[in-house]
Amino acid sequence: MHRIPHVGCVALLSLLAACGGGRRQEAQSVGFPPAPLPQYSTGDSYTFDDGTVDTVTAATGEEIRWRNASGARFVTSRDVLLPPISWADSNQEGRRSYAVTAVLFPLQPGGGVTTTATVSQQPNGGGAGVDSQEAWQCQVGDAQRTRVAAGSFDTVQVDCAVKQTPSGRYEQRTFLYAPSIGYYVRRIDRIGDAPPRTVELTAWTDGNPPLPDSALQQRVSAIQRALESQPSGAAVSWRDAATQSTGSVEPVRTARADDGRWCRDFQEQLTAFGRRYALSGEACRETAGGWQVVNVYSSPAARERTAQNAG
Asked: pTM for the whole thing?
């Protein structure tokens, strides 16, 4: 169990999250504001129905480092729908160098990006490397309500196409990107004349909400106020004007621990940089006053409600 002093940053422990499911439904058109660049934290994880699990291992500046279930590693920019900057698995290592910095976000109808890249791939264990050129074009389409196994989401459709030389390989990729979770919930790949391949999100887990200091102070203060003075079921809300981050803290249960301290369970709803977080926590009152948060984790029940109302 992680123990977090109440006077410092409230660190979050990512645990397994279970999300709602159901049959796929026809997408419905919806309106949406421009979707901002996603913010990621270590522990963010996205599971798909083909067995793929993409997990953030580090988020520093504009680079996001990922690992998937097979152990392969890759690095993207925060413009996450663009192809990876580098990758490595048991067979090879590769790197993609863009001719100019490509920027797809913020996503808004009619937006898009056109760019070229040089791809260098090197087999593990020696051997000749292979270089190729790519011409990428991505176009932002309409927003729509999309249902997958992980829940219903307001999504933005992004269509990308790439042509490689000298191979002549042509590939199309369609993303249905959900701003509320910072990742796509459905991806459709088309390579040449082969039948399309579709993968869908079945679950996701949030890591630490990437709050700046001003919002973090508001959050910590709200947790202390809620636990100290609010009855179970009564929420304390907070808002950071500098970043437009918001949140609420609601105590849900009070009990005495084995060591004699009073402890309380609480739930949190957070919105930061366009992403929503549904969390649960535990805290115990210190003898000298104040509440020590001992655990914060993704809340399956609250996350299911968040998924159903995402967007």
From this structure: 0.69
Where in the chain does DSSP place strands (E)?
28-30, 45-48, 53-60, 63-67, 73-77, 86-88, 92-98, 112-123, 130-148, 151-165, 170-178, 183-191, 197-205, 236-240, 245-256, 262-272, 275-285, 291-298
Place domain 28-205 in its CATH homologous superfamily. YmcC-like (2.40.360.10)
The domain locations on the chain are 28-205, 213-308
Of these ranges, 155-169, 207-221, 268-282, the one predicted with the greatest mean pLDDT is 155-169
Give bridge partners of residue 246 from the DSSP assignment: 239, 271
> What sections of the chain are H helices per DSSP?
213-229, 300-308
Per-residue pLDDT tens for 94-148? Answer: 999 998 888 899 998 899 999 999 999 999 877 788 899 999 999 999 999 999 9
Are 195 and 189 contacting, i.e. CB atoms less than 8 angstroms apart? no
pLDDT of residue 278: 84
